[in-house]
Amino acid sequence: MTEPTPAASRLSLRRLLPLIVLAAGLAAFFALGLHRYLTLDTLRDNRQALAGWVADHWLLAALAYVGAYIAIVAFSLPAALVATLTGGFLFGTVFGGLLTVIGATIGATLLFLAARTALGDMLRAKAGPKLRKLEEGFGENAFSYMLVLRLVPLFPFFLVNLAPAFLGVPLRTYVAATFLGILPGTFVYASLGNGLGAIFEAGRDPDLGLIFQPQVIGPILALALLALVPVVYRRFAGKGRTGAAE
């Protein structure tokens, strides 16, 4: 049996390094107890100081917020919802939502690239026939599938960030579908965040299940169904061509 060469070991470690860094960041987040500070209670207790700092240093605050959101998504930290509400509270529905979408898209893209670099090629090389067939089907309709996965929160956000890296989704398609797909949900929560001041003053808790209310989730589901139209069309068009050939 041939032993792996030192060069091959270094190459493997170099390929895995991005994921190792991200995993280490997630572990450090909990080890340092930072998860105890990224809460709505922290925002409630510090809202006046934060709002004052944003008013005095808007551009710096906006850049800091986008940078923090990139880190939250890239390291898969369980703080995206609180961060989105904070963005709406500090910057308003429009700017807060837009800054959140930018940060989330960049963070998701970094995680996608890290996973594809570290494991994507290896998993596809060792994939069985079923996974290859799934990859082919996903690849033919990658944008539509990605858009549906982003629009409808059927799976955890970090999982939707990782899976396309293993299914050969092109980077451009991934970025475009991510940016467009997270727009509706993000602006719903940014709008809720924009009203947190009044909610805090009244001593109430925000309704975090707002997005699942019929008047909100209905239009989002309609967009998801619309995104599936090209998939259905291709499938039926393909069957039509097959029947005609026979």
- The count of strands amounts to 0
| Poorly predicted regions | 1-11, 240-245
Helix coverage percent of residues?
A: over 70%
The gross shape turns out to be globular
Main beta sheet: strand number and arrangement? none
The structural class is mainly alpha
Question: Secondary-structure map with pairings?
Answer:
Blueprint: H1 6-31, H2 40-56, H3 58-74, H4 80-126, H5 129-140, H6 142-151, H7 157-166, H8 171-181, H9 183-194, H10 196-201, H11 214-245
Overview of this protein structure:
The protein has helices spanning 6-31, 40-56, 58-74, 80-126, 129-140, 142-151, 157-166, 171-181, 183-194, 196-201, 214-245. The model is unreliable at 1-11 and 240-245 (pLDDT under 50). The longest helix is centred in the middle third of the chain and has 47 residues, at 80-126. With 246 residues, the protein is an all-alpha fold.
List keywords for this structure.
mainly alpha; disordered N terminus; 246 residues; 81% helix; disordered C terminus
In short:
The protein has helices at 6-31, 40-56, 58-74, 80-126, 129-140, 142-151, 157-166, 171-181, 183-194, 196-201, 214-245. The chain is mostly helical.
